[in-house]
Specification:
By secondary structure, this protein is mostly helical. Helices cover 58% and strands 8% of the residues. The chain has a domain of 91 residues: Serine Threonine Protein Phosphatase 5, Tetratricopeptide repeat, CATH 1.25.40. It starts with a helix and ends with a strand.
Length: 132
């Protein structure tokens, strides 16, 4: 972290924004993205709250899946890592209608060209390949 005092100030501001039940899905997701590099569990909770408010958001679903994979990589045991990867897979499958490759090679999806943009919201997706 380059600026710990600055980080603390911004973190406190995000905490204040998301502390109410009226916080919008966009505010929750943006706060989750802020915390996703330093406080993974907190970010995951914010993404989950955002998904509850806007279950059709492809960007929030992808952010939540990415958060689960980050947590899986830092997990202390294989059982926890496997559970988090399974949550990431199921989140993507539910939100995007994807089917994971079968078998032990469930490591990545290639996004069909028609899904590179969510036509309902014109949200551009960050990548055409997701690795787990």
């Amino acid at each position: 972290m380059v600026d710990p005092p600055g980080y603390a100030q911004v973190a406190a501001a995000w905490d204040q924004v998301v502390s109410t039940k009226e916080a919008s899905a966009a505010a929750l997701a943006n706060a989750g993205r802020f915390f996703n590099n330093s406080e993974l569990e907190k970010a995951g909770g914010l993404f989950e709250r955002a998904m509850a408010k806007d279950p059709q958001s492809v960007m929030v679903a992808m952010s939540l899946a990415q958060n689960y994979t980050f947590q899986a990589r830092r997990a202390r045991d294989q059982a926890t890592a496997a559970m988090l990867r399974a949550k990431a897979y199921s989140r993507l499958e539910a939100a995007l209608g994807w089917k994971a490759p079968p078998g032990p090679g469930r490591r990545c999806w290639r996004m069909p060209p028609r899904l590179r943009m969510n036509p309902a919201s014109t949200q551009k997706l960050p990548s055409t390949v997701l690795n787990f």
